[in-house]
Amino acid sequence: MLRKIFQAFLVAAVSVYVMASVSSFAFLEGDPDTIERNIQNLVKQARQGDTGANQRLHSEFESYQNLDLQNHSSSEIMNYIRGLERAGDFPSYVLESRGSYTYGTGTNYMYLTGRNVSMYSLPVMEAATRIARLNTSGIDYLVYLGEWKPQKGDAWVFCRMRDSGRTGWIEKRSVQLVPNSTFRRLIPEIQAGLQGYNLTTVRTAQRRSEAINTDAVNYSRFTREVESKIVSTIKSARGGNVTARRELDGLLRTWQGIAQRQELSRKSWEENDEYVQQLVKAGKVDGTLLRAGWKYDESGIFLYTPDVATVRSKPDFESATVSNTKAGQALRYLGERLTRSGVKFYLSDDMRGKIGWISERVVEVVPIDAAKTFRQQLDEGTRRR
Questions:
Q1: Average pLDDT over residues 236-263
Q2: Which element (helix H / strand E) includes 80?
Q3: Which numeric CATH code is attached to 2-194?
Q4: pLDDT score recorded for residue 179
Q5: Rg for the chain (alpha carbons), in Å?
Q6: Are strands 130-134 and 117-120 parallel, antiparallel or unpaired?
Q7: Are 239 and 315 in contact (CB under 8 A)?
Q8: Predicted pLDDT at 50
Q9: What is the CATH T-level fold of the domain 201-384, as seen in this structure?
Q10: Per-residue DSSP letters for 362-383?
Q11: Per-residue pLDDT for 29 more than 50?
Q12: Dist. CA 64–CA 78, nearest whole Å
């Protein structure tokens, strides 16, 4: 029964690593203490608003959640080893008096410490055949099944490959054992780093949502109002209305200027996030605000202030004033945050060095493509009047 239980454990462990990305463990190089320090640094960076650190923590957490961290007994391991011995997949002399075979019950996993490490069929170099070359991409986790220290020579580790499930031997100097206790300490630390900081999960949810931005339902309302005004002004100007002609020229200057701004062009999530992270590192944005409730819309929008509006240092009405916008001013959209009181604030950039938060109550959300359409309509209208 124990043999069957442990075989099931091995299959599950290997299947976890088949699915896990190799690169997700790429920073875990060094002794267990170094591993833990690296995790702690990632937690600190994530709390400060570093999206890259947050994403790496998510990746590690997803992998660690599925690990079997029980301390399997020596009898379980040895029952499994005996089964391999009977099948001809484990050399009998290892369990005889030519050395000592041991297994640490608190260590289920290990990783390689170098590149292009070879796995052999036997733990004696002169008689061994190389059955695999591992770690060609940097890190390759393996299921640890014990180690043999011969009477003379270096120690060997017996392990199972994560992809094929094949067993073999690696020189112990080429591996780093990771105690289960290390993973047990890391998991709550990672949870602490991710708590309240869900940019990655928000990003996934956004892409799956049929309305990425809650203001999407208002796009048509405002753009229809603007377009209706443009159409009516063009009609009046063509009819000889002098006031309409002056107004038409003003509309053209406004929307032509907006449509030509490269800063307002459509940005991908990655482009926008990279820019925001630069602002965080420069101290222009408080990275702790890029946590729960934070979103970014990839549909291509900008912010338009019909009247004078206040841009603040934080997403609340009591924080300091960063700047005041002009009527008809366009701001680059950098993301949004919903406050506990239910008011949405947009993180904005006036493209003149002023970065801050502006309330949804004083701005309109406009598709970038709409600005280009307005310019085309106005170009054509002014030429034909």
A1: 89
A2: helix 74-86
A3: 2.30.30.170
A4: 83
A5: 31
A6: antiparallel
A7: no
A8: 66
A9: SH3 type barrels. (2.30.30)
A10: G-EEEEHHHHHHHHHHHHHHHH
A11: no
A12: 26
